[in-house]
Design a protein that fits this description.
This protein is of the alpha+beta class. The protein folds into 2 domains: about 55 residues; about 100 residues, Cystine-knot cytokines (Cystine Knot Cytokines, subunit B, Ribbon). It is built from 5 helices and 6 strands. The strands form 3 sheets. It has a two-stranded antiparallel ribbon. A hairpin with a 5-residue loop joins β4 and β5. The radius of gyration is 29 Å and the shape is flat.
């Protein structure tokens, strides 16, 4: 049995099942399994990589999984200066934000918009053909002292509830 035959038999399950079902194919199946086990052993002993039968999850898969996390409320402790609103202050606040995907919330509008855009009917406007994870409501106002001891209050700073809009 050639390497091509082994590859074909291994990657085409109907042929493999047919061989298993008839007695004449038993020897070939044994040969196939022996060849695969030998190839795996050689790869492992030579310091090579694992065979594709046992794939490792790489960074690409981790990123792909991260993109499919549902819309949710997250929080992070940051200084007021890090908020980027122009205030100089060392005070810290608990900043709650929305993060995640909204695939489950796709509506007919989103599907139609995507179709019209793909047909180049809408060109220059920046439109999104899917819902976005955004705050549905905000926490109470946040007050703080800046570096010059001035008192400020900022509203709608931190998300209270997130949803797909």
């Amino acid at each position: 049995m050639s390497t091509a035959d082994i590859h074909y038999a291994f990657f085409s399950p109907p042929l493999l099942i047919m061989h298993l079902m008839c007695r004449e194919g038993y020897g070939e199946i044994r040969q196939l399994i022996s060849a695969l086990v030998e190839r795996y052993s050689q790869a492992m002993n030579s310091g090579g990589h694992e065979l594709p039968l046992f794939p490792k999850t790489g960074n690409r898969m981790k990123r792909a999984r991260a993109r499919h996390k549902p819309c949710a409320l997250k929080e992070l402790e940051v200084s007021v200066s890090e908020l980027g609103l122009g205030y100089e202050s060392d005070e810290t606040v608990l900043f709650r934000y929305c993060s995640g995907t909204c695939d489950a919330a796709v509506r007919n509008y989103d599907l139609s918009l995507k179709s019209v855009r793909s047909r180049k009917k809408i060109r220059k406007e920046k439109v999104r053909a899917r819902p976005c994870c955004r705050p549905l409501s905000y926490d109470d106002d946040v007050s703080f002292l800046d570096a010059y001891n001035r008192y400020y209050t900022v509203n709608e700073l931190s998300a209270k509830e997130c949803g797909c809009v």
